[in-house]
């Protein structure tokens, strides 16, 4: 028979009377039984199984629940044991793959779906599983039995199941009698089909009498309006707040496993600091159900640690937060209810991982949210009013020990101006953008390279009020940045690594976490905040911040402005906290004979450190957090000042610092002949103490590179990507002018991180003549990638004190580019690849010495 005919081919329930009532089953039917107990479901299943054996149709039993088995050992029934504890995605994907492998014309019996509440805690996710699975069963021309326990699920869950399934049947067991009441029978009808029926042996007796029907239904417990199981659990937990400490701790741990995750190093930290009251407070601000994700957990945990361990000295300086959390279950619900689950499953396969990512990303940008989620979005936006908010990724694996995912997923500012409808639409699209970023190429490569491609990476979302104030038409914090409890990128042996460091900017913190071309952040060593990184005095202005990111109320967007323009606006505090007169430029103006000029300023934050307690508070915060984590940490923060130079710090994020470790002392050989030394310096490296042989050096020549067209500069980056693939497993050093990963080719080489990921050493060298300058950008997202991939980083400031740099040590060797890139001889004057067998690089983090010879 053809497909259209097969679709209506009849099948049997194994119960003759029921077949007559519903006009038989059809291949493609999903059959849901609402029952009072699994034992009642077993009766119906046994009729079905016996008929399957008679007709020689393969019967599959999907076993996942704790209830008694629906079938005992039966050699004629194939049983799959599925672990529901692994979570929705693993569970649903494994069943999808079973259905795909078993093919068409198969019978299925599933355990009772209600038991999934024990593992997933959410009615919403049971509905999602049903909606994701049943259409596939239908398409493969199967017949599948499911059961749900009556009065255990929300009306919306039952409504979703009713909408998706082909048959929904009520099964009642009253006074030792079995009744079946069809509620939905798709594409079949008879005048008596939807009456209740009494089962007597193989017969089904229709109950049409009003008196009999009333008596029957009067004996049935219809139940109250049912909350989602998730809400019921948390409501019940509130009643435990007055109970014994032991009872509260037990309930707290159960709730933590629902919103934070399973046992892990982070879970143990949370268990140590959070109380049951804390967990209930977090849950009260969650939209939907599921985990709140790593970024949210890190932020909340760090605040609790400071509140508990920091004392009044720290806690009095903390700005309060009122964040919301969009649970990870909303991410799956969005995918399932928009009909993309099968595409998601195809994308999570080795052959589909990259192939289907673009299509799924495009769909994620254009879906609709369920009505109940929309209503919760509206209520949250009503709470924030027109305050700017930021929608931030908070995936399950983010900000954890070992995986930072720094910069891999999107964060979206919502300036939050306009009508309520306009603000709602902007927010909803921001959520879509974060969801779609799970399919970004960088995110895909990151997960693949770190062995995370097949793990569940549910996307929760953190919604935060943007820290700052309104200044004219703009909104921004006075200062923002990132902080590190261990300073692994030092340039002077007098620097105390354990005092920590900051990357500080004026305005929004976006410039502190990204490498911003043409602009530089303020690098602050907290043991001596006034210490200046290695540069000549006249270069301080050049290598400082010139533009800031802010939110424009007028244009309802985030944009960049010149610092000088914004400093002319009243800042509700003393602007001299942030700027100092630029004496070098003043002297130059006087030399040139200028008389009418405004005093030029340098954004150096000098008085923030001399006139306030800011540095002391930041150092104390980092120390407290690092001690609690028993591990170095990095944080994101803002600070806002008042007219009396008082301030509040908003802690936005905290995570374990991704680092190879501090390393042991390495003996650095003495340099006998400078000509034999490739480079040497004091400091300006990152990656601990090492001694590493170097097999190959890939050298990009500054002068030749600068003379290329912009298109050819991008092509150089692509060629490096090809060479990178060939260097996997080899100890290779990549050295180039300016900044690796620059988006402006005139300032460096515009590679993606995936194009340099196989390098063991990455060097950036300055060229005063050509205008290239490395950036001390430890802590930016690009550098997080370098640290996590255990790539050793070096910045070579050619011409500075204590720096030796001999490019000829490499350039006089044979250029092997043709053996790696046979088609790219045109780039031989730019890219020089040398075999450097015998060369070694040494670094010692204690003495801050670096040598490559």
UniProtKB/TrEMBL annotation:
<dbReference type="Pfam" id="PF01326">
    <property type="entry name" value="PPDK_N"/>
</dbReference>
<dbReference type="GO" id="GO:0005524">
    <property type="term" value="F:ATP binding"/>
</dbReference>
<dbReference type="InterPro" id="IPR002192">
    <property type="entry name" value="PPDK_AMP/ATP-bd"/>
</dbReference>
<protein>
    <recommendedName>
        <fullName>Pyruvate phosphate dikinase AMP/ATP-binding domain-containing protein</fullName>
    </recommendedName>
</protein>
<dbReference type="InterPro" id="IPR013815">
    <property type="entry name" value="ATP_grasp_subdomain_1"/>
</dbReference>
<dbReference type="GO" id="GO:0016301">
    <property type="term" value="F:kinase activity"/>
</dbReference>
<feature type="domain" description="Pyruvate phosphate dikinase AMP/ATP-binding">
    <location>
        <begin position="292"/>
        <end position="671"/>
    </location>
</feature>
